[in-house]
């Protein structure tokens, strides 16, 4: 059984510990899945996003690999920097991830972020783009393509600022699991990421069956 697992993650300055958590947990996830019956092989990918003001640093994409060491090496070059106002380029990050080279029939996207997309439908904070994504992306379009591609969406919640986003997304694609990462201490992040990733994979497999 083969799985594509993509981490989509806010990479602005507030997210340093969570990037480290993802990097340090993925090998444990792969080794654990390989021991299951039947054995599960994983390709892992990463799509990091920041905000529109970060220009060429807005997206960091590492396409799928079956090497955990390669994945960790790729993430070692990802710094938690940038970000302008509160909202981030969430839709840009998800859209880029949807268009990565998904191959396996079981497709899992684990999104981790602490702030919502731009637009008043998602937030009531200071927002440089209150009318929504400046590139014209909409949640309906991005999530619709995700669903058409057979990608299962899961979210790791870090703050309550994403509560409205979660509701809007569920209104578009239906209920999906939300993992509570907001209470995790730095030393607990690897365990939390491991549990969230394993749960997302096993849920996707169950839904496929």
From TrEMBL:
CDD domains reported in the protein's UniProt record: vWFA
Protein name, per record: Hemicentin-1-like von Willebrand factor A domain-containing protein
Keyword Cell membrane recorded: no
Keyword tRNA processing: no
Keywords: Secreted, Signal
Organism whose genome encodes this protein: Glomus cerebriforme
Pfam families linked to this entry: VWA_4
SUPFAM superfamilies in the record: vWA-like (SSF53300)
Tree of life domain: Eukaryota
Alphabetical list of Gene3D superfamilies matching this protein: von Willebrand factor, type A domain (3.40.50.410)
Location of the Hemicentin-1-like von Willebrand factor A domain: 5-105
InterPro entries: HMCN1-like_VWA (IPR056861), Thr-specific_kinase-like (IPR052969), vWFA_dom_sf (IPR036465)
Entry's localization field: Secreted
């Amino acid at each position: 059984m083969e799985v594509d697992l993509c981490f989509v993650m806010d990479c602005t300055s507030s997210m340093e510990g969570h990037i480290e958590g993802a990097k340090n947990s993925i090998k444990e996830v792969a080794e654990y899945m390989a021991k299951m019956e039947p054995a599960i092989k994983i390709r892992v990918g990463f799509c990091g996003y920041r905000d529109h003001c970060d220009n060429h640093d807005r997206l960091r994409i590492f396409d799928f690999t079956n090497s955990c060491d390669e994945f960790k090496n790729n993430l070692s070059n990802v710094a938690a920097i940038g970000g302008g106002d509160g909202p981030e380029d969430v839709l840009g990050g998800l859209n880029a991830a949807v268009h990565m080279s998904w191959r396996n029939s079981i497709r899992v996207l684990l999104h981790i972020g602490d702030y919502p997309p731009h637009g008043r439908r998602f937030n009531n904070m200071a927002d440089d783009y209150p009318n929504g994504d400046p590139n014209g992306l909409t949640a309906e379009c991005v999530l619709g393509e995700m669903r058409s591609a057979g990608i299962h969406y899961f979210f790791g919640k870090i703050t309550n600022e994403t509560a409205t986003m979660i509701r809007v997304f569920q209104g578009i694609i239906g209920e999906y699991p939300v993992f509570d990462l907001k209470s995790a201490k730095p030393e607990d992040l690897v365990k939390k990421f491991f549990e969230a990733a394993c749960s997302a994979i096993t849920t996707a497999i169950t839904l496929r069956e």
